[in-house]
């Protein structure tokens, strides 16, 4: 009896093992079912309806939206008309502004022209002022130069006068006879010149020959050429010498008495 029970126990254990393996196999088989459910799940995008139902829905939708569409169309037409009127007003305003801008440009151009003319006038005035200043400067310079020339001429005359006075002061010979053109200064001298004077007296202003050297022809101690100086006529045919401002002139006289100063000597 124990042997039969042992066989039953063994059979039961094998059945349990088979059941366990079946359960494990079933678990492994159904473990992927949730994913398969999601994968195999379908979505119905279209639903088939009968035609009368569809027509009723269309008519109801049309009856619902027609008044709204008409109202919106009237509003849109009114707004379009308002925009068209505003467009016309803006065009008129734009034309007006263009006219104003054109007039402003013309005014600015004229004002620029006037400003340029004024600038040119200012420049001309400035150049005229500069020319006037330059003219005044030149006139002042001319006056200064004129004054300088007059001063130099006066100094030259004073030096000549001083030289003549020194010549008179240094003269000791009694043969000189002095006379004056202005009765205030000794302007000329005269003395007889004999042969002894001609031979012994050195020439004050020797005459130069054509070769450039002194000319001693005729033992003339003084220049014999004519000048614009005054002369004194005498008589008795004595040889005399006339001097004025340091220049000497030789001439022939007839007498030792002075007559008529300023005339030419007699031959």
UniProtKB/TrEMBL annotation:
Coiled-coil residue spans: 135-162
GO biological process: attachment of spindle microtubules to kinetochore
Signal peptide extent: none
Basic and acidic residues: compositionally biased ranges: 95-105
Pfam family name, one: DASH_Spc19
Renumbered residue ranges of the record's region Disordered: 95-131, 200-221
Keyword line: Centromere, Chromosome, Coiled coil, Cytoplasm, Cytoskeleton, Kinetochore, Nucleus
Subcellular location: Chromosome, Centromere, Kinetochore; Cytoplasm, Cytoskeleton, Spindle; Nucleus
Gene Ontology cellular-component terms listed: DASH complex; spindle microtubule
Primary location class: nucleus
Top-level taxon: Eukaryota
InterPro entries given in the database record: DASH_Spc19
PANTHER family xref list: DASH COMPLEX SUBUNIT SPC19
Protein family (similarity comment): Belongs to the DASH complex SPC19 family.
Protein name listed in UniProt: DASH complex subunit SPC19
Organism the protein comes from: Aspergillus fumigatiaffinis
